[in-house]
Amino acid sequence: AFMYETIRPKVVHTAVKYLVEQELYKDEGIVISNDWLNQHFSETENFIVNDEDKKINKNENTKGSDDDDNWNECDDEPINPGAPETLLNDEIADQNDTGIKFAPAENNRPISILMDLKVDELTFPKIYCGKQRKIKENTKLTYAKIAKSELRMFDRRCGRVSKLFFTYKKLQTRKFCDAISINLRKTKNTSNVTVTQMLNRDYVNGLIHNNDAFAFLRCDRSSPAFLELKKKEAMAMIRQLGCATIFLTLSAAEKKWSELIVLLIQVLENKVITLLEAENMSYEKKCDLIRNDPVTCVRYFEHRLKCLWEILSALYAPFQGYELEDKYVRVKFQVRGSPHIHALLWLKKCSEIRQR
């Protein structure tokens, strides 16, 4: 990894020396092992990269990416350019079979991510710098509120993709535990369940057939239980309001929104640029800004979406004479990570249009 200049050993060692001196790491008994250093002292390697190893072929697909006047949703531009951090080190033959092997949890008893109160601070030392999160006394905050506050903080380090996925995984695990606890307390079809019944394949298949075994998965947006719930909501609206008048599809075009680029520059780099400068910015630079702060991009898309619904529901809306009665919205995310909207719109006084 040092040959790709993604890791600087001297900087890592300096950071480790700082972290082990913090109270959080002292409480966990984390120290630098001098025995390990002495054992591998003879295996030192000169961290100097040759000039021929620095030459990395650029992706030919990025040529001409700035010329995007004829833009469309299905363009041929590369997806997420400029992200070289990967474990696929095929360019260097000597590193294909090389890896770091260690077992920090050997002979220890693992605990759940929900039971470890310091898991966030210990997992992301670059964000918390060995300091434990401080919460005022007599203040009851859920983990969801804490995560929301950190993601919207002026310090954008908590908005990194790795931190987002970690936070989502922890929230999802907590929701699953709560849902399982609630389902186990329900007495319908599951009263006085014994071990013998749970070991009976026919009894378990009966629970699966009645969807009692999958009810706790409704908090997962990609699970069949969640999709079934949303399908019932859509079918209920169709039964009450009739067939939808308009099917609407919306996609986020962050690279085309100059206002968003100006906002990202101000948030990430503390600079103020004009809309013209944002329009003339290179394609790679825009992608880098969008990738470094996905939270701001999603919040900006949500803001534009709310403004759109307000415009469509206004007195002098584009559908004059056909007031927006109701809507059903489904949010998805594309391969490039941007939100995508599918919406069903019901307009008043559209019985003639529906008949046509």
Summarize the structure.
This protein is mainly alpha-helical and 356 residues long.
* General form: flat
Question: Structural class, from helix and strand content?
Answer: mainly alpha
How would you spell out the order of helices and strands? Answer: HHHHHHHHHHHEHHHHEEH
Give the helix proportion (percent range). 40-55%
Radius of gyration: 27 Å
Mean pLDDT: 79
C-alpha end-to-end distance: 64 Å
Strand order of the largest sheet: 1-3-2
Beta strand %: 5-15%
The overall strand count is 3
Largest sheet: 3 strands, antiparallel
Total helices: the number is 16
What's the quaternary structure here? Answer: single chain
In the residues, how many domains can be counted? 2
Low-confidence stretches: 56-69
Word description of this protein:
There is one protein chain. The chain is mainly alpha-helical. The chain folds into two domains: 2-136, no CATH class; 239-355, no CATH class. The chain has helices spanning 9-19, 23-27, 34-39, 51-54, 119-123, 125-128, 143-151, 161-185, 195-199, 201-209, 224-241, 258-269, 275-279, 283-292, 294-312, 351-355, and strands at 246-251, 324-333, 339-347. A three-stranded antiparallel β-sheet has the order 1-3-2, sandwiched between helices. The longest helix is centred in the middle third of the chain and has 25 residues, at 161-185. The chain is flat, with a radius of gyration of 27 Å. The chain starts with 8 loop residues before the first helix and ends with a helix. The model is unreliable at 56-69 (pLDDT under 50).
